[in-house]
Specification:
The strands form seven sheets. An eight-stranded mixed sheet has the order 15-14-18-11-10-20-23-22. 12% of the residues lie in helices and 40% in strands. The chain is mainly β and 335 residues long.
Length: 335
């Protein structure tokens, strides 16, 4: 009993250790003074619990301890950076990395995956774009005017699209798609930080069995892959099968040459979610599906996984789709 109490006593300071460290501007390689840092505890619903500023030497220290998982959040030149505080991180020597922000030259996505889940009369489409920022010295790219991602949204989607983006910290954030002056072209202003970044889109379009589906892109020649559930067949030009992804049982295809494409879709289905549940089962509490696709030969020195986390709660998205469609219809009537 005494041994157990002693071990518990020793563990308590680690579980609720205060956080201190230094902010480093990785573009200049120097400590960054006067940076505001917010301490967030996951145990309190991701609510901020304390804010401090880095000193002239870039160093900072929080007074309040954070038990369990936490996060440091800071902003620099209009870009938010997140530093995770896992239990195995030395909380007395935390390095918070920030970067200088630039607008040009823009970084184009290096891969695109579409996951198509056709139903009886409508189809859920999830597009995922991968960006790899290998700038040296490292900088963050942001273009609020033109967007770091530009994409076509089918007119039949009625302007309703959900956007989720994540940087190297893998912290998914909701983002906003804004309409541009080009017909059916939207933009996303998400900062592309050094390392791997992903932006995913989810929308719904009318789709009947045997009808063609056309997808367009503003990035000609972009490597594009398509995934469909088991039991769904697609045909089209420059289409080659890459086999079945074992976790979700999705069939993966590659579009030769990338760019725009038109395919014919036959069948309906949803991807297998975690635990072998379908999308309908996910609505009752199942987890999201994940597809990992390794595009061989893209770059011998850069093997990457285009992991598509499909956070689609189909019923919830359908409710959002119908409610916004009704709002848009009412707005058009008032005009």
């Amino acid at each position: 009993m005494r041994l157990a109490l002693a071990l518990l006593f020793c563990a308590l300071p680690l579980a609720a250790a205060s956080v201190s460290g230094v902010v480093i501007n990785r573009t200049t390689g120097k400590p960054e003074p006067r940076v505001a840092l917010t301490l967030i505890s996951f145990a309190q619903g991701m609510d901020p619990i304390e804010e401090v500023y880095s000193g002239p030497d870039g160093k900072f220290e929080f007074v309040k301890p954070v038990p369990g998982m936490g996060m440091l959040r800071t902003d620099h030149e209009g870009v938010t950076y997140s530093t995770m505080l896992s239990p195995n991180v030395d909380r007395a020597n935390v390095s918070v990395d920030i970067y200088e922000a630039k607008e040009k030259p823009p970084i184009a996505p290096m891969g695109r995956v579409l996951v198509l889940e056709p139903g009886g009369s409508e189809m859920v489409v999830n597009e995922s774009y991968l960006f790899q920022n290998d700038t040296e010295p490292p900088v963050t790219f942001r273009d609020a005017e033109h967007g770091t991602l530009r994409f076509y949204l089918p007119e039949s989607a009625k302007g309703v699209v959900q956007v989720e983006a994540s940087g190297p910290a893998r912290m998914p954030l909701n983002a906003i798609a804004e309409k541009t002056s080009e017909k059916d072209v939207y933009k996303v202003d998400f900062a592309i930080k050094p390392g791997e970044n992903r932006i995913s889109l989810t929308y719904m379009v009318p789709q009947k069995d045997g009808e063609p589906f056309t997808s367009r892109t503003v990035y000609p020649g972009l490597q594009t892959r398509v995934a469909v559930p088991g039991g769904v067949e697609i045909t089209g030009d420059n289409l080659s099968s890459l086999g079945t992804e074992p976790t979700t049982q999705a069939t993966i295809y590659e579009i030769g040459g990338g760019g725009d494409f038109t395919i014919t879709i036959n069948g309906a289905g949803r991807l297998q979610r975690s635990g072998g549940a379908s999308a309908q089962g996910q609505e009752s509490g199942g987890g999201p599906a994940e597809i990992s696709i390794e595009p061989a030969g893209l770059h011998k020195e850069l093997p990457w996984l285009l992991g598509l986390a499909i956070a689609i709660l189909a019923l919830g998205f359908f409710n959002l789709y119908t409610s916004k469609s009704a709002t848009n219809t009412e707005a058009r009537r008032k005009r």
